């Protein structure tokens, strides 16, 4: 079986598969660009709307929460409903949220718009992964995933720069109007050119077999876990805002486990959670994403602004080389995972992420150029995590359960991002109050950046856990699910 993208059984044909990849890559780009642009506009939004420092975080938290939960639900819907129709509806919801944000008369309306944006954008990663799993054979998926994921780097690299320029010239509402224009163009392309899924690949029985109670249980569990960890950062471990949601998350997770075991129409097939490769790929997704986003894309802007006094645009330039590496190397990483197997690529790549974090822990007080080099090392490594890990997870998915399997995988992936940022923020606050000397014996600079040095070590520990999960990944014809 070659590494070339060859579609299978869907009737879309090879050309249709390439069109699908192009549309999904553009959708991922718009989604990432939307978020990376907004991050640099937060100080201006706070000033214009008179929002407190604690409240402004809901622009990020509300979006991340709805986005993470929505991926699993969209994935399940796509197992029963036309891929093209699901995608178009999601784009319309995303566009409606963007319009509401642009016209928002106050902060509450802006948060509502962000929630609506997330409710539509959540479909993009789940449908992208599920459609690749359906349309491409196992030996060609890695390269296809790489083609889609490469657009993450473009959106992440250009977002802070474009956002800084647009906010400076026209104001933050124009960011949302720009997103709206891109979504209209994307919806037109999807309507005219996007191939649909084959009805033969859809689960039998229609949406009455959706497993609504299971969908609600996993959604509440994920949302409560996210809120509990966020509460740990904001109010500490003893506050009801922390332990209450965490307790609710445990209870609903147990309820979900019971549901999929005993329900006649489970939200997800029980065999999916007995597949070691799939579960380990989900574990890698959580801890690798937590390390890269928490220890890199979340922590480094704080370090640059608070310790080095950089502007948002200057901080974006520090992040840009890492994002560019993701764009340039994603296809190669996916191709390698097709040729030599996902596990070998994952282990080497996580080793680079670990090396980057240890370097940053040692050099936390160094000039921005040195920090950019450490983040670049992490970015090169993380490039070899995203598409190969998605490739590994896809080995557990037959075409009939590609939607729900992809959705739950993406739920783990994006929960890792949210939990990583919250855990890093909480640990940084703790070490800022207690650290006089860095834990890393190789850190020799002053105490100012010592808490950051320690927090990079926390992210390194998360990377080590991800490496342990790679030991359980087995891929090959004999390991693909027949569910």
TrEMBL record:
Keywords: Cell membrane, Membrane, Transmembrane, Transmembrane helix, Transport
Annotated transmembrane regions: 12-33, 53-75, 87-112, 118-137, 144-166, 172-192, 212-231, 243-264, 276-304, 310-332, 344-364, 370-387, 408-430, 450-473
Domain of life: Bacteria
Chief localization: membrane
Domain Major facilitator superfamily (MFS) profile: 20-478
CDD domains: MFS_MMR_MDR_like
Membrane topology: Multi-pass membrane protein
One Pfam family hit: MFS_1
Location in or out of the cell: Cell membrane
Name by which UniProt lists this protein: MFS transporter
Source species: Natronospira bacteriovora
């Amino acid at each position: 079986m070659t590494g070339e993208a060859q579609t299978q059984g869907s009737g879309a044909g090879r050309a249709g598969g390439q069109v699908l990849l192009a549309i999904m890559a553009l959708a991922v780009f718009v989604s990432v660009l939307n978020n990376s642009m907004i991050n640099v506009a937060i100080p201006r939004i706070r000033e214009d709307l008179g929002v407190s420092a604690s409240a402004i975080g809901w622009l990020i938290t509300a979006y991340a929460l709805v986005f993470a939960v929505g991926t699993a639900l969209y994935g399940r819907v796509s197992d029963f409903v036309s891929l093209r129709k699901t995608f178009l509806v999601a784009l319309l919801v995303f566009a409606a949220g963007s319009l509401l944000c642009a016209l928002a008369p106050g902060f509450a309306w802006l948060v509502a718009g962000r929630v609506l944006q997330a409710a539509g954008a959540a479909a993009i990663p789940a449908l992208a992964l599920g459609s690749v799993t359906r349309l491409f054979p196992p030996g060609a998926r890695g390269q296809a995933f790489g083609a889609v994921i490469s657009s993450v780097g473009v959106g992440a690299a250009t977002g802070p720069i474009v956002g800084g320029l647009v906010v400076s010239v026209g104001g933050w509402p124009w960011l949302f109007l720009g997103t709206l224009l891109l979504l209209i163009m994307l919806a037109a392309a999807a309507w005219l050119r996007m191939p649909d899924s084959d009805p033969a690949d859809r689960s039998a029985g229609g949406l009455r077999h959706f497993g609504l109670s299971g969908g609600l249980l996993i959604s509440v569990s994920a949302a409560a876990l996210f809120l509990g960890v966020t509460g740990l950062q904001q109010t500490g471990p003893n506050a009801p805002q922390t332990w209450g949601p965490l307790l609710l998350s445990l209870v609903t997770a147990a309820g979900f486990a019971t549901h999929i075991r005993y329900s006649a129409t489970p939200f997800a097939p029980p065999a999916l959670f007995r597949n070691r490769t799939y579960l380990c790929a989900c574990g890698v997704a959580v801890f690798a994403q937590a390390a890269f986003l928490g220890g890199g894309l979340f922590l480094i802007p704080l370090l640059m602004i608070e310790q080095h006094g950089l502007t948002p645009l200057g901080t974006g330039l520090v992040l840009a080389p890492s994002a560019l590496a993701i764009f340039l190397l994603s296809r190669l990483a996916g191709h390698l995972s097709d040729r030599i197997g996902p596990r070998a690529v994952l282990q080497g790549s996580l080793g680079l992420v670990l090396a980057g974090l240890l370097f940053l822990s040692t050099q936390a007080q160094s000039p921005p150029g040195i920090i950019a080099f450490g983040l670049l090392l992490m970015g090169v490594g993380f490039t070899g995590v995203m598409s190969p890990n998605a490739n590994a997870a896809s080995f557990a998915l037959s075409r009939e359960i590609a939607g729900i399997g992809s959705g739950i995988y993406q739920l783990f992936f994006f929960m890792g991002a949210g939990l990583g940022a919250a855990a890093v923020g909480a640990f940084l606050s703790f070490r800022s109050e207690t650290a006089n000397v860095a834990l890393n014996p190789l850190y020799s600079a002053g105490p100012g950046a010592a808490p950051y040095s320690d927090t990079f070590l926390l992210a390194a520990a998360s990377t080590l856990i991800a490496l342990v999960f790679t030991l359980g990944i087995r891929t090959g014809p004999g390991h693909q699910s027949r569910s």
